[in-house]
Amino acid sequence: MDKAAALQGRIIGAHGRHYTVEFPDGSLRQCFPRGKKAGAAVGDHVVVSPQAAGEGSIERILERRNLLYRSDDMRSKQFAANVDQLLIVVAPEPLFSDDLLGRALIAARSAGIEPIIILNKTDLHDSLPRARAKLAGLAGAGVRVIELSALAGDAVRGALLPVLRGKCSLLLGQSAMGKSTLLNALVPDARALTQEHSQALGAGKHTTTTTRLYHLPDGSGDLIDSPGFQAFGLYHLGPSEIERGFPEFQDGIEGCRFYNCTHRHEPGCGVLAALERGEIPRERHELYKRILAENEAQGRY
Ligand SMILES: Nc1nc2c(ncn2[C@@H]2O[C@H](COP(=O)(O)OP(=O)(O)OP(=O)(O)O)[C@@H](O)[C@H]2O)c(=O)[nH]1
Ligand SMILES: [Zn+2]
């Protein structure tokens, strides 16, 4: 039997050990990594050997521009590859976690991906000021914050489609922030598409698509939806990468007496001075110390 020619495609779905790969003609194949090799992520461009029954094996992952991932307890979890921007969805109710938001920002910066915070549920007028206040420091340090209510579909499209145009964006958020509501406003047939794909690929009803790339309706831009998360370890990052994830520290860092200052106890530390003056929110510095301590406890450095 002739060996079919290899095809080049892009991973648009990750479901445990198998992947949905999309080809330039729009066709899809369910693909498995060859051998034990793992590590492919949604957004990866891959070389596939076609197999029978619409399947394929992933022979090679082409060079990626970036990869966003987290690492908890010796396991790493890849969110997506070749991403232009990270949209982190937060809300006033339930009030978002500073910890998870902060970690997502660090992961994005270290991967060279622009983070954008989406403050959802702006219709909850009573709790909105508290959420805004929590984001003020980041906004002041140059992180883009877009406010909207996912319930108002037209307004969502008006605010976000220009931001998403021509880019590959990854949507991330802890549970109940409104990520699914937002996705449905942007990609109206998202749910139907997911079901259709899992049926067409014989993946069965019970296969939960963990991560999925959607093409925006006007054909200009892609949006990757990833599952919620409870933990967000950053064991793979060194101290300087963690430090860079705190844009509000940067002015202070320029004033540190020691070039290798860790901004925890050193005399003449510009970050601690800014903290004392109230220019850096205390919980941000606590998060910074917590992540360093976690990684040190792992024996990372
Ligand atoms: N008031 C208000 N409620 C919203 C808004 N967006 C979403 N919600 C509600 O918030 C709840 C959670 O929304 P989902 O879209 O399911 O949240 P999710 O982030 O996808 O949550 P998981 O499915 O747990 O990951 C639902 O009851 C939504 O109706 C909003 O802009 N305003
Ligand atoms: Zn310092």
UniProtKB/TrEMBL annotation:
Binds 1 zinc ion per subunit. Its EC number is 3.6.1.-. GO terms for biological process: ribosomal small subunit biogenesis. InterPro entries: G_CP_dom, NA-bd_OB-fold, P-loop_NTPase, Ribosome_biogen_GTPase_RsgA, RsgA_GTPase_dom, RsgA_N. Residues 70-232 form the CP-type G domain. Its cofactor is Zn(2+). GTP binds at N120, K121, T122, D123, G173, Q174, S175, A176, M177, G178, K179, S180, T181. The keyword Zinc applies. It holds the Pfam family RsgA_GTPase. It is an enzyme of class 3 (hydrolase). One of several proteins that assist in the late maturation steps of the functional core of the 30S ribosomal subunit. Helps release RbfA from mature subunits. May play a role in the assembly of ribosomal proteins into the subunit. Circularly permuted GTPase that catalyzes slow GTP hydrolysis, GTPase activity is stimulated by the 30S ribosomal subunit. Monomer. Associates with 30S ribosomal subunit, binds 16S rRNA. Belongs to the TRAFAC class YlqF/YawG GTPase family. RsgA subfamily. HAMAP family: GTPase_RsgA (MF_01820). This is Small ribosomal subunit biogenesis GTPase RsgA. It comes from Parapusillimonas granuli. The gene is rsgA.
